[in-house]
Amino acid sequence: MIALTTAVKEASAIARSFKGKAIDGRNLRLHTVGDCATIDAAVTVSNAVQFDWYDRGGGKAWTYTHAATTVPRPAWGNVSVLGSIDDLTQLESVLENGYAPARYMAEFPNGRRSFVEQGIRWIPCPAQTGLEPTKKHKVSTTYASIEGSCPPTCKLKETRECYGMHGHVGLVTRRLDKDHGAILVEASGNAKLQSCVDCGLCLDADKLYARNMGIVFSAHGVKAKSMKKRLTVLS
């Protein structure tokens, strides 16, 4: 119930963005912090994206979810979403639910080059490997309460070593977790997100799924050292 409550607040934040007026085509990164832990929550947020973002002229919305083993891909509608896995034991159920997978590794095993593991061709994030430039795109982001929105299966939930890892995790979640709230930041100057738009791989996750491809990230940001230690334990 808390997950749905948080999703309703996130949907409201999307609807209120830009004072309800036309959007200039910028892309939307959902859940730089947070997630949709249930089907109802995912449907609530994806409906807001369709009717209060796309229909007002907004660009593509993309995200990653740790609930991919329990929430089927269709619940997300026209949002580009990858299924985040903590280890390869979750891969089969994520694929069965219709998601292209995403995972973190301590280091890329083959440098910038892709590699095949368990039938998936894993592509190291081009934005991290420096293959994509950073341009001054306009990007919007949403943040949702980790406590209120993230599934209990996420092994990084307790430590707040969020897969967003854009340097905002501690400050934003302390602020939001008080009331299980959600906010939308209309203009994000985060260079990482801007380079994500340049790359575009994660903005078309269904194409990755159709091609048996996934994205692999290396730990980065303010908690990189502790996250790499945790990833070693998970693997």
What would you say this structure looks like, in words?
- The chain is α/β, with parallel strands linked by helices and 235 residues long.
- The chain has one domain (2-234).
- The chain has helices spanning 2-16, 39-52, 91-96, 126-129, 146-149, 169-176, 191-199, 205-210, 224-234; strands spanning 27-33, 61-65, 80-85, 100-105, 115-117, 120-124, 139-144, 182-188, 213-218.
- A nine-stranded mixed β-sheet has the order 5-6-9-4-3-2-1-7-8.
- A hairpin with a 2-residue loop joins strand 5 and strand 6 (120-124).
- The relative contact order is 0.20.
- The model is unreliable at 230-235 (pLDDT under 50).
Q: Helices and strands, in N-to-C order?
A: HEHEEHEEEHEHHEHHEH
β-strand number: 9
> Quick one: biggest sheet?
9 strands, mixed
Strand order, sheet with most strands:
5-6-9-4-3-2-1-7-8
Structural class: alpha/beta
Number of domains: 1
Shape estimate: globular
Return Rg in Å.
16 Å
**Fraction in beta strands:** 15-25%
Look at the structure and give the mean pLDDT. Answer: 87
Helix content range: 25-40%
Number of helices: 9
Low-confidence stretches: 230-235
